[in-house]
Amino acid sequence: MTLTNLVSSFAMGTTVLLGQQIGCGERKQGGRTVGTAIVMFTVIALVMTAVLVIFAPQVSSIMNAPEEAFDKTVAYVRICGGGMLVIVAYNLIGCIFRGIGDSRTPLFTVAVACVFNIAGDLILCAGFKMGTSGAAFATVFAQVISVIVSFGVIRKKELPFEMHKTDIGVHGRTLRKMVGLGAPIALQDLLVSISFLIILAIVNSMGVTASAGVGVAEKVCAFIMLISSAFMQSISAFVAQNYGAGRMDRAKKALHYGVAVSFAIGVGMFFLSFFHGNVLAGIFSSDAMVIETAADYLKAYAIDCLFTAIFFCYIGFYNGIGMTKFVMIQGIIGAFCVRVPVSWFMSRRAGATLFDIGLATPFSSILQLVLCLGCMLYLRKKKWV
Question: What HEC string does the chain produce?
Answer without folding.
Answer: CHHHHHHHHHHHHHHHHHHHHHHHCCHHHHHHHHHHHHHHHHHHHHHHHHHHHHCHHHHHHHCCCCHHHHHHHHHHHHHHHHCHHHHHHHHHHHHHHHHCCCCHHHHHHHHHHHHHHHHHHHHHHHHCCCHHHHHHHHHHHHHHHHHHHHHHHHHHCCCCCCCCHHHCCCCHHHHHHHHHHHHHHHHHHHHHHHHHHHHHHHHHCCCHHHHHHHHHHHHHHHHHCHHHHHHHHHHHHHHHHHHHCCCHHHHHHHHHHHHHHHHHHHHHHHHHHHHHHHHHHHCCCCCHHHHHHHHHHHHHHHHHHHHHHHHHHHHHHHHHCCCHHHHHHHHHHHHHHHHHHHHHHHHCCCCCCHHHHHCHHHHHHHHHHHHHHHHHHHHHHCCCC
